[in-house]
Design goal:
The protein has 105 residues and is an alpha+beta fold. Helices cover 11% and strands 25% of the residues. It has a domain at 19-80. The protein has a four-stranded antiparallel beta sheet, covered by helices on one side. β2 and β3 form a beta hairpin. The radius of gyration is 18 Å and the shape is elongated.
Length: 105
């Protein structure tokens, strides 16, 4: 049986890494209101060490995203954050507007 990679199938654009905090301090990864699947990414751009808090399906997808964006030697480390929120409940209800009830005539 042959394994077909999603890269050969043209799905490379489907890999998405949601950046929660971009170019932030390392101390923001200690926030317990982050989801449990969030990662602290340490990378370098022009010899400056920067930190991002991101989430994706796996650390490999995050690594691929940062290598494609900043180059193959940019990623220095990917670590877990201290988040305690269920990923399904993270930002739950922020996009919804309250529904206004219509009066009966």
């Amino acid at each position: 049986m042959r394994c077909i990679s999603r890269y050969c199938m043209g799905w490379k654009k489907l890999i998405m890494a949601e950046v929660i905090h971009e170019k932030c301090d390392k101390d923001q990864s200690l926030d317990h209101k982050l989801p449990t699947d969030a990662f602290l990414v340490t990378y370098s751009v022009e010899n400056n060490i920067l930190y991002d808090i991101t989430r994706a399906g796996s650390a490999v997808e995050i690594f691929d995203h940062y290598c494609d964006t900043y180059g193959k030697d940019a990623v220095k480390g990917i670590d877990w954050t201290q988040g305690n929120v269920n990923p399904k409940m993270y930002n739950y209800g922020l996009d919804k507007k309250p529904v206004r009830k219509k009066r009966k005539k």
